[in-house]
From TrEMBL, chains A, B:
It comes from the Bacteria. Binds 1 Mg(2+) ion per subunit. GO terms for cellular component: cytoplasm. Gene3D superfamilies: Phosphoribosyl-AMP cyclohydrolase. The lineage of its organism: Bacteria, Pseudomonadati, Thermodesulfobacteriota, Desulfovibrionia, Desulfovibrionales. It is an enzyme of class 3 (hydrolase). NCBIfam families: PRK00051.1. Mg(2+) binds at D74, D76, D78. This is Phosphoribosyl-AMP cyclohydrolase. In the N-terminal section; belongs to the PRA-CH family. Belongs to the PRA-CH family. GO terms for molecular function: magnesium ion binding; phosphoribosyl-AMP cyclohydrolase activity; phosphoribosyl-ATP diphosphatase activity; zinc ion binding. It comes from Desulfomicrobium norvegicum (strain DSM 1741 / NCIMB 8310). HAMAP family: HisI (MF_01021). Catalyzes the hydrolysis of the adenine ring of phosphoribosyl-AMP. It holds the Pfam family PRA-CH.
Length: 125, 125
């Protein structure tokens, strides 16, 4: 059975989370093998937090979990695409729907392009 | 002016390419600062090839370039999302529309989920 290649980037696999219903790209984070196995076991996306150096159950604090709808793997098995149902409607810790909320305009300025869904001060007390 | 943070991953920035019209995620690859600048200058996506250790003008061989339609940056400035028009209709060197052409089924098997668009033997002579 083919599995993602965790060795290529020192044990970490980049994972793209895409909202299944809309096709919006929500975030990119990383899984180690433990996070991969926990994602498969629970049906909710788990990542490896590089800053906290620990397993990260996305939404474990806020309740805004990501329910797995499909899992895809790329041609060289070093990246995974998960299509998810984003509970709470926002993936970003800033309260925006997508972490990719800044768009570059023709003058090289960054402007907001993703709506604010929740107030982080209310969610992360 | 805020710019992507190239230092976080040793000079390389993960870049998600998404088809602008359909929302389909096509591939993930990496840019160094030179590739970033060339992308902005030309309006066609350039990556850094980790295997060949060189600037990689996507589609330079096959003609299947990626025309930039928008550029987004994530909350911690370490990942970029480019929405593109994929000339030729296929991003993957295998001839499939998307590099994410394998989907995991409930039994853990991988099945093809992205159509074959061209014959790689015809394109890469």
């Amino acid at each position: 059975m083919e599995q993602p290649d965790f060795d290529k980037c020192g044990g970490l696999l980049p994972v793209i989370a895409q909202e299944a219903a809309s096709g919006e790209v929500l975030m990119l984070a990383y899984m180690n093998e433990e996070a991969w196995n926990e994602t498969l076991r629970t049906g909710e996306v788990h990542y490896y937090s590089r800053s906290r150096k620990t397993l990260w159950h996305k939404g474990g604090t806020s309740g805004h979990v990501q329910k797995v709808r499909s899992i895809r793997m790329d041609c060289d098995r070093d990246t995974v695409l998960v299509q998810v149902e984003q509970i709470g409607g926002a993936a970003c810790h800033t309260g925006r729907r997508s972490c990719f909320y800044r768009e570059r305009d023709a003058q090289g300025r960054w402007t907001d392009c993703s709506p604010m869904v929740f107030d982080p001060k209310e969610v992360y007390k």
